[in-house]
Write a structure and sequence with these properties.
The protein is α+β, with helices and mostly antiparallel strands and about 250 residues long. The protein contains five helices and 15 strands. Strands 1-2-3-4-6-7-8-15 form an eight-stranded mixed beta barrel. The longest helix has 14 residues, at about 75-85.
């Protein structure tokens, strides 16, 4: 039996010019859809995650990789908060509810009030959506610090060592909190992730300072520890690339 899904495609954690970002598939009115369909959809699209919004009035949703359902992931949660805000006239829901994790606070800030900044050109995408999640709900990433950003750039996703759930990173500018990172997650069915919000949450908590992460081909993530221990925040820009009809 086949199922046809209408999927909105977002790019989360774009740069200031709306380039790059991690692709996310969003399916609405998904309360009766089985989880295995979300896993199959992620694999079919070639995305690191898809989202099933199963209770839009309460901002309830599920997160799937090509291999499993997740408790908390950054770009699906930021993307869900953003798109629900767009569907509600621009007001981001104050709380979003991933099915398997603690409730997540969400809000929108302009670039200047958020304190976020980067070196990319700005074409008007000045709105950053932030979420605050429990660090314990994020996947258990392993972090490998390298000496230079060029060493991060030189890594190959095909190398067998330390590629199951690892983020490799180096300081671009330590006083400014600028980081170059790449994330490899074969354990989740993804060779390399373009932008990993849950890793940024864990790294900001580990370093106990605000950071700006330049990841993948050109994605930009902002992260910082929250005032409450055990919680951290990640934010970024989001754009929509429209809808696709997918038959599985």
């Amino acid at each position: 039996m086949t199922t046809t899904l209408e999927v909105q495609v977002l790019r989360v954690f774009t740069d200031a010019g709306s380039g790059h970002g991690n692709e996310l598939g969003v399916v609405y009115e998904a309360a009766r859809l089985p989880g295995e369909l979300g896993i199959r959809l992620a694999a079919y699209l070639g995305f690191s995650e898809t989202v099933f919004i199963d209770d839009e009035p309460r901002a309830g949703f599920r997160i799937f990789t090509p291999a499993a359902e997740l408790k908390l992931a950054g770009h699906p949660t930021v993307g869900t908060a953003w798109v629900l805000g767009e569907r509600a006239g621009g007001k981001v829901p104050a709380v979003v509810r991933p099915r398997l994790a603690a409730e997540v606070a969400a809000w929108r800030e302009d670039v200047r009030s958020s304190g976020a900044g980067d070196s990319h050109r700005n074409d008007g995408n000045d709105s950053i959506v932030w979420i605050r999640g429990a660090v314990a709900d994020a996947p258990p990433w392993q972090f490998v610090q390298l000496d230079e950003p060029a060493q991060v750039d030189a890594l190959s996703p095909d190398a067998p060592e330390q590629r199951e759930r690892h983020q490799f990173w180096a300081w671009i500018d330590e006083p400014a909190g600028l980081i170059r990172a790449r994330t490899f997650c074969a354990a989740m069915g993804v060779a390399e992730d373009e932008a990993t919000g849950s890793a940024a949450i864990r790294l900001a908590d580990k370093l106990q300072r605000p950071i700006t992460v330049h990841q993948g081909r050109g994605s930009v993530l902002y992260a910082r520890p929250a005032a409450e221990p055990g919680w951290a925040e990640v934010g970024g820009r989001v754009v929509s690339d429209g809808f696709r009809s997918v038959t599985l």
